[in-house]
Amino acid sequence: MELQLNNGTTMLLKFKFTGLFLFFTLCFISCNKKETQIKPNIIIVYMDDLGYGDVSYNGASKLQTPNMDAMAMAGMRFNNGYATSATCTPSRYALLTGVYPWREKRAKILAGTAPLIIGTDQMTLPKMLKQEGYQTAIIGKWHLGLGNGNVNWNQLVSPGPNQVGFDYSYILAATQDRVPTVYIEDGNVVGLDPNDPIEVNYQKNFEGEPTGLENPELLTMKWHHGHNSSIVNGIPRIGFMKGGDAAKWSDIDMADHFLNGIQKYIKTRKDKPFFLYYPMQQPHVPRTPHPRFEGLSELGPRGDAIVEADWCLGELKNTLEAEGILENTLIIFSSDNGPVLNDGYYDDSDVKNGDHLPSGPYRGGKYSLFEAGTHVPFFTYWKGKIQPGVSDSMVSQLDFLSSLAQLVGSDVRTEDSLPLLELLMGQSDEGRNEMVIEATSRTAFKKGDWVMIPPYEGPALNDKVQIELGNNINFQLYNLAEDVGQQNNLAALNPEKLQEMLIAFEAIRGEDYGKIEKLELK
Ligand code: NG6
Ligand code: CA
Hints:
Elements: H1 2-36, E1 41-47, H2 66-74, E2 76-82, H3 88-97, H4 125-131, E3 135-141, E4 168-172, E5 183-185, E6 188-189, E7 199-201, E8 222-223, E9 231-232, E10 235-236, E11 240-242, H5 254-269, E12 274-279, H6 301-322, E13 329-335, E14 345-346, E15 378-381, E16 389-396, H7 400-408, H8 421-424, E17 434-439, E18 442-447, E19 450-453, E20 461-462, E21 467-468, E22 476-479, H9 495-509
Helix pairs in contact: 5-6
The structure holds 2-acetamido-2-deoxy-6-O-sulfo-beta-D-galactopyranose and calcium ion.
C-alpha cells in the first residue's frame, strides 16, 4: 500500500512536473513564436540592369556607390545572389510570384501594351504580406503587363499591380524606353488631360506623329538599334504614342519623382507594417541622370545613373532613420539582370567604359546564359538585427516569397521558392543547392559550383549589344570554383558530371534537353 501510495505520489509529482514542463515549453514556444513573428517593414530595392561589378563594394573604381557599399558592409552580402533571368520581366515575375519564369510562357520582355501576366488568383509576395496585415506598395518600374489586352489608357487601367496584391501603386508601365511614357497611379494615368487622350500602338505610327527614324533633327539622344519610334523629350522610344502631352514624364526627374513618392509613402504609412517594392529604373536605357549627377562617375551617363541610384538608396535610408523606423525595417537590395553598355542608344556608355568591368569577374551580361546574366549584386540590411557578414551560399530572388513568409509567420510557400530566411538573416550558411537560370527563353542549370548549359543554336554573340549569349551547339559544363570566367568547357572531359547535371536539370525542367534547341533569339 505504502509503496503504491508512494508510487501514486511519485506519479502525481511526475505528472505535476510534466505538466509544469509542458506549460513552460508551450510558453517558450509561444513567446518564441511571437519573437519570430514580429512584423518589420520590408523594402525591396530592385535595380534595372545593374551588374555584379557595377558597385564599388564589388570592386568598381570608376564610380563610387558609397550608400550601397555601406549597407552591403553593415548587412549580409551575398556573393552568390541571383536573379532568375537575364532580362527584366521574367526576373520580376519570379520575384513577385515565387515561380520560375519559364513556367509562364508569357514571361518575356513585354511591350508597353502587353496584358498582365500574373494571374489575379495567383499567390504573390504582396498578397502573402497583405494576408499578414501589411500595407503593400510598389513605386517604380512594373513591366509585368497591364489590363487584358487593348488597354484604354484614358480609363482605369486594370488589372495591374493593385489586382495582384499591392494596395498602392505608382508605376512606369514597362520600361523607360517604351511607351506609354507616363506614370500610372492606382490604375490612372497621372496628370492626364481628358481633352488630349493617349493612344498607344506597337505596330504602327499615328498619322503625322514624328519618329526617331524619320525625324533625327528632333532628337537629343540618338538611337543605335531599335528605339526609333515615337519621340518623347527628344528621346526616341520603342512603340508609338499619341496625345497625353501633359502627362508625359520628365526623364531627368524620374529618380527624384519615384524617391519623393517613396518618402511620402514611408512618412504617411509608418504606423502599420508596410511592404514597399522600390524598383528603380537605373541604369537601364535611356540613361537620363539628373544634371546634378552629370560627371560624378568616370563612365558617362550609365555610371552617373548608378551614382544617382546610390544617392536614392542613401536618401531612403535617411528617411527611415529620420522617421525612427530604420531598426524596424528589413531592406533587400538586388538587380533584375546583368549589365549591358550599349542597349540601343548612343550614350557613350561603351566608349567611356575603359577598363570598368560591369559584370565583375563573370562572363556575359544582360541577355546571356553565362554567369553575368543572372549573377547580380545582392544584400540584406536590417540595422541591429542582421550582423555584418558575407556569404558564398547560393540564393535566388525566387526565394523571397517563402523566406519572407517565414519572417512574418505565414504558411505560404511555393514549390520553386525556398524558405531561406535564416540565410538572408545571416544566421545560417544553408542556401540553394541548385537552380535553373533563364535568358531570353533558354534555360541552364546550376548545381553547387557547376553550371551546365544545354546545346542551343543561335549567335554566340549579340553583336548589337556586344554580349556573349551562351549559345553553343554542344553541351557546356563549367566549374566556377576553378574557372570563374567560364573559359574551360568540361563537358567532353567530364561526361559523368554532365550526365548528373542533365538528370537533375530535367527533373526540374521536365523536358528532354539532350536535343538541340532551335530558338528565336532577340
Ligand atoms: C530590348 C531593347 C532594350 C531593352 C530590353 C528590355 C531593343 C533593340 N532593345 O528589346 O533596349 O529595352 O528590351 O530590357 O529594342 S529589360 O531590362 O526591361 O529586360
Ligand atoms: Ca532589366
